[in-house]
Amino acid sequence: MELFKYTKPMSLMSKSKRFGLLSLTVFALALVVLFTKGLNYGIDFAGGTLIQVKYETKAPINEVREALKANKEFESASVTFFGSDEEIVIRSKVSSGALGVDVGDTVRGLLQDTGTFEVRRVDMVGAAVGSELREQGLLAMVLSLLGILIYVSIRFEWRFALASILALVHDATITMGLIAFFEFEVNLDILAAILTLLGYSINDTIIVFDRIREGINTVKDSRLETIIDESVTRTLSRTTLTSMTTFLVILTLYLFGGEIIHGFSFTLLVGVIIGTYSSIFVASPILMWLGFSASNYREKEAAKLKREKEKEKMRAMYESGTL
Amino acid sequence: MLQKRLSLVKSLNFRIILFAFAFIFGVVFSIPSLTQSESGKKITLGLDLQGGLHMLLGVKSEIAIESRIKSMAASVKYLFDDAEIIFDSLRILDGGKVTFELLDSDDVERAKTLLKKELEGIVLEENGLVFTVSMTPEEVTRTTQNAILQAVDTIRNRLNEFGLAEPIVAKQGEDKILVEVPGIKTQEDEQRIRELIARAAHLQLMAVDEERNARVNTMSNDEAKSFGDVILSDVASPEKYLLRAIPVLDGSMLTDAKVGFDENNQPVINFTLNGQGARIFGDFTAVSVGKRMAVVLDNKVYSAPNINERIGGGRVQISGSFTIAEAHDLAIALRSGALLAPVYVMEKRSVGPSLGADSIKASSIALASGLGLVVLFMIFYYGMAGMIANIALIVNLFLILATMSLVGATLTLPGMAGIVLIVGMAVDANVIINERIRELLREGKSIAKSIEDGYDNAFTAIWDANVTTLIAALMLYVYGTGAIKGFAITMTIGILASMLTAIVGTHGIYQWLLPRMDKKKTLFWFGMRNEGAH
């Protein structure tokens, strides 16, 4: 089966201004959401306690709320259903450092009259650990961006590197904006999802850039716009197919993977769409706007080749003793 | 027919042989994990999948320093008594200093040499006959470090003695301790384990200050301190005791602790002191007949019996109202030694076994259906070429399992998600390659030429794309913790394995099948109608 058959280059870059405007608007909206609403940090980053309780029948959520009020530590705890009617999650900002007294036991005591239940998970993160995890997470993100920047600069050119990093910032910001908008709890798994998304998105961008790099040498026209159009069109089927397979598996993860990895799979789900969009409509135009010139690049490559040849010639002369 | 079969044998190439080896390797080493057999190296399931307790403990090392100073004071007393040096007002000052006054100026030199010889890492200051002893900064650092390492050892010993399967106790970072205990079945067990870890098990034998004890109920802590005393309460009743702050001896001189029963058939703990402890204990009881001595554990008085005569042999008993389980755990804690510094919980995650089982089930369903969808899609879109990509994908999964089993990596829930994700991303390389081959076929190239050039053209893209993804995965590994590290591991192994299977493996299969490929059947082989051939 063939979905995309290459016949002639699509005229994509001529519409780049429109896409750029769209991206900028969404990007700005995401920033507004992030700054006004903010990320809803879960216990991994903010510290606190999370208790997952499963009842044999439908969880009596109101009674649970009432029962928890008896204890000061859980006065302001939030109680929500988790994945099904039988399961609930109790979240509290309080964390205790004492080893002997366990919040799990406390909650078990408070809830003992609400029915038959099982405490399935108790997570407690102290505030000190939370802020350390947050710092490490940020460091991981910045260092991956830096690593990618350096690698792409070496393999391509600095404009390619800058364009791909800007596209990544675009992707990460919009995804985080959506996470903030839908009020997903941000825990370590969301961080992992965002870093994976960075990996996925850069993967996608590199494939397009690789084709552009190839196009610079093969397309006769030296106008970058034409080269990009030609290259993007040629990779369009691959981009769509890979995004589709990845999207499919993440969708199954989202649907069947269980409540615990819901936030993780949601992040990747929107991330794949944004990452695919950005490699074509963000990274490539930025390359153009950064003033990348195909003819200069060709000249430089030719010069490089010439230098190497000359070096070789010198070496050959040196070895044969004529120098 | 024979000709064709011969050409297939001839077209066996190093790529397909390598791929076959990878396949066999993958299957053989993932069998133990898949069948959960007893022998062979298996994948370790993370605590989030098999249930268990994960804790990050902090160490209150300032307490270790305090108790080091206390034991320094006890040593001063013991050494001077032994050498018959007369002294007075031995006291611990705020800010970690021990002070005393010598009564005889002829003893000064002897006392100084004795202290310098017997006590390590101290600073001795003198002001006339008044001396202060404090720790050098190096000694403070050493004590802090020692307290952490000792806590790691002690907790490990305690958990091992408790009889748990493979607990992990390790120092993490500068001053934290990671404790992972898999396979806890009940909440009661978890409670016991937590208490066992937390127990300072700091045993002290202390003299009751009989002169002033009558006033203990009206005395303030500061007043007690001014006499060199301390007020401690009874473990079971509200009764209070006024005790000499510097203990006669402590748990460091203990050699063994066992559960026994007293005359009322109540569980007690009998412990034995080492030679030095027995001597100190004997000497003390000899001069203290008629007075009381308190057995103090973690700053609670368990008993304060009257001393009727000198007690030799160094056998002491702790009685209290223990249950047998409590006495058992306490004996373990005493045997494995006191924690030099108490620990506290910085992070705790406990997952019940049923939740872990649910997570395995859910993620397995996701993996199976994700894999099914991708496999069907690839066959539908690319025909045989898709089938070849699928074979590479399956081998890739076996390779991930085998590698993880061999290096003893831990499979976590995010790790499972990582494998599902790899299924989607691993076929990417084949999509790129197949699209390149199709392009070349459309241009009218021969099948052999299209395949070779297709792989050549696709290589730099796949390589650069995978390396950048690896950079992100590596950062996740270095800065991630626990379950997230598991995700980074599966991603990294998956990407590396996919380079082998999707690039080398499929290339080998094409080269092997080349004699059978027919340019008229591009729909079957590559899922495309070939107009370019006309």
Report on this structure.
The complex is a heterodimer of chains A (323) and B (534). Chain A is of the alpha+beta class. Chain A folds into two domains: 13-40 and 129-292, Multidrug efflux transporter AcrB transmembrane fold, CATH 1.20.1640; 48-125, Alpha-Beta Plaits. In chain A, 66% of the residues lie in helices and 11% in strands. Chain A has a four-stranded antiparallel sheet. In chain A, helix 1 packs across helix 6 and helix 5 (127-155) runs parallel beside helix 7. The mean pLDDT of chain A is 86. Chain B is an alpha+beta fold and 534 residues long. Chain B folds into two domains: 2-49 and 352-526, Up-down Bundle (Multidrug efflux transporter AcrB transmembrane fold), CATH 1.20.1640; 52-61 and 140-350, 2-Layer Sandwich (Gyrase A, domain 2). Helices cover 54% and strands 19% of the residues of chain B. Chain B is built from 16 helices and 19 strands. Chain B has helices at residues 2-10, 14-35, 47-50, 61-82, 108-118, 137-162, 187-198, 221-226, 275-287, 324-335, 353-382, 384-407, 413-442, 447-479, 482-513, 522-526; strands at residues 44-45, 52-59, 87-93, 97-102, 122-127, 130-135, 168-172, 176-182, 203-207, 229-233, 240-244, 249-250, 254-261, 267-273, 293-297, 300-303, 315-319, 343-351, 410-411. Chain B has a four-stranded antiparallel sheet with strand order 7-8-2-18. A four-stranded antiparallel sheet of chain B has the order 3-4-6-5. A four-stranded antiparallel sheet of chain B has the order 12-9-15-16. The longest helix of chain B is centred in the C-terminal third of the chain and has 33 residues, at 447-479. Chain B is elongated. The model of chain B has no long low-confidence stretch (mean pLDDT 84). Classes of the chains: A alpha+beta (323), B alpha+beta (534). The interface between A and B is large, with 80 and 83 residues.
